[in-house]
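User: Hello, beginner here. Can you help me understand these amino acid letters and fold codes? It all follows right here:
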Amino acid sequence: MKKSFRWGNTILAIAIGMTTWQFSQGKEVYVQSWLAHSLLHTAWVRTQASGHQVKPWPWANTWPLARLYVPRLNLDQIILSRANEGMSAFALGHSDSSVQPGELGNSVLNAVHHNTYFSFLKSLKLGDMLVLESFRSGRWHYQISAIYIVDKTDTYWVEPSLNRRLTLVSCYPCTGKNNRRYVVIAEEVERMT
């Protein structure tokens, strides 16, 4: 009976060792993104419940402004404030120079690490629906109307709009010198009650 117990401990030690080794081989970004994703969603729920800005972690200089859902991909993303001040690598960031998500105008959302957590941007297609749940202005349906790869000096896509628009921006490709941007534009379709 003692021999089988020792084998159990040995197998458990090997499993823990292999798991640790796997995470040390570059997989830690997935653990970090999972933890950050959980903290961001908790902060979003607490922000909605309290009506006050709730930081996802104590040292954060940002808070959730909105939530973006992509039904076709079954994907949920939190949109954080202050994208221009080094927002999290695990959430969309709102550009302070644009209107708040859900308000009338062009709301620019930045995704910093296109090749890791934001690979969903390249999965978006023309006609895809997006659902935006804004802290202040309700819930909106948007539809993707354009996808561009542009030079980083081309600022046409961040100009103000007379309609509700979401503009999602990321590096393209996310290697070395990023002289191009991947831009996804979604126009308002309807407001949900």
